[in-house]
From TrEMBL:
Pfam families: GMT-wHTH. InterPro entries: GMT_wHTH, Tcm_partner. It comes from the Bacteria. This is GMT-like wHTH domain-containing protein. Residues 279-344 form the GMT-like wHTH domain.
């Protein structure tokens, strides 16, 4: 069983969620009187060796902070009655649990295609929603849309790539695939995957899923890939879904910091358990910072823009973090391709605060 043994992928997944929650809560604490954490596939709370899973780690963070104890509404659900019972028991035994203003809510629901109606009809307080299913049943466009419709609501989704890839070709689960991708995208995806010349099926599936999320108004989408421990193929993805640029930027920094590899300082946004893995020829000979450099020179030729605005416009759903932009802009300044603060206002050399004005020559 999944919770019998804690694997390195599970620990990285937990760290992504917990690190983002910590940063998100600090910001939202200043902006809302009530906050939420919703876990729709929560599990029992602990692995067999006693390691905390995500729900317990999140609750411990909440319990350490007086503001959080008075603001957070937490909801935990699992269709496995034994799991949700074990989680309730584990949370009830946490230190300071009685200090919470709002008692945790525990549900024993099996999510299906109609579940989203519950959330669609309810206004949700600013919340982080974790959707971590075994497969894909109950995970729909409609559910994700209903969970992220309100201000301050972000979702982190476990995208079971292996199961979904198989499901696309399986007519018995067509209803589930349509509910996840939308009918037109699903039919297009199935047709493309059946073509013998479709070499990069993974990119095709993930691109169509990103577009399916865009169809429901999700503007910022980040994916973090996990490879199997004993193989080179992909196991699953963690997908971050938000309508807010600041949230997107925070999660990008979190994912970049936990990525197994960085090529010339640019994170690959993936985790590979094997520490003796080898970089591909593409990784060895291609510099993603050159790609960023060329894009900036082309897109902003002859324009004047602040660093803040450039980063906001250009970094959407791309692998580059602020550090990468600053490195490339420093190179461009040294090459005489840009002028910074052309009005000669004071600025420390090779620094790029948000207000630095950049003129592309």
């Amino acid at each position: 069983m999944f919770f019998n043994e804690v694997k390195s992928q599970s620990l990285i997944k937990k760290e992504i969620v917990v690190k983002y929650f910590d940063a998100w809560a600090k910001i939202m604490n200043k902006r809302s009187d009530r906050l939420g954490y919703i876990d729709l596939f929560s599990g029992p709370g602990n692995y067999e060796d006693g390691t905390d899973s995500t729900p317990i780690a999140i609750m411990k963070l909440i319990l350490k902070n007086n503001d959080y104890r008075n603001k957070f509404v937490t909801v935990f659900n699992d269709k496995n009655k034994r799991y949700i019972g074990k989680l309730e028991s584990a949370i009830s035994n946490l230190e300071n649990i009685k200090s919470l203003k709002y008692e945790p809510i525990f549900l024993n629901l099996e999510l299906d295609i109609q579940t989203s109606d519950i959330f669609a009809a309810t206004s949700i307080i600013p919340s982080l929603i974790f959707i971590d299913p075994w497969g894909y049943k109950g995970v729909t466009q409609k559910l994700i849309s209903s969970l992220t419709k309100d201000w301050g609501c972000d979702a982190i989704l476990f995208f079971n790539y292996n199961r979904i890839r198989s499901g696309i070709k399986n007519p018995k689960v067509e209803e589930h695939m349509i509910s996840l991708f939308g009918e037109k995208r699903y039919l297009k995806l199935r047709e493309e995957l059946n073509k013998s010349n479709c070499l990069d099926k993974e990119s095709l599936i993930m691109n169509e899923f990103r577009e399916a999320m865009s169809d429901i108004g999700i503007e910022y989408i980040l994916t973090f890939r996990f490879k199997n421990e004993d193989k080179e193929d992909t196991s699953h993805y963690i997908v971050f879904l938000s309508k807010n640029f600041t949230a997107h930027n925070i999660m990008k920094e979190v994912m970049a910091s936990l990525s197994s590899d960085k090529i010339h300082g640019v994170a690959k946004f993936e985790y590979i358990p094997d520490k003796e893995r080898q970089l591909s020829l593409k990784d060895l000979y291609e510099n993603p910072l050159d790609e960023l450099r060329n894009e900036l020179l082309t897109q902003y030729a002859g324009k004047t823009i602040t660093f803040e605005r450039l980063f906001y416009e250009h970094s959407k759903n791309k692998p580059f973090i602020k550090k990468n932009y600053k490195e490339v802009l420093t190179r461009l300044e040294e090459e005489g391709k840009i002028l910074c603060n052309p009005d000669k206002s004071r600025r420390k050399k090779n620094t790029f605060s948000d207000k630095v004005v950049i003129k592309f020559l």
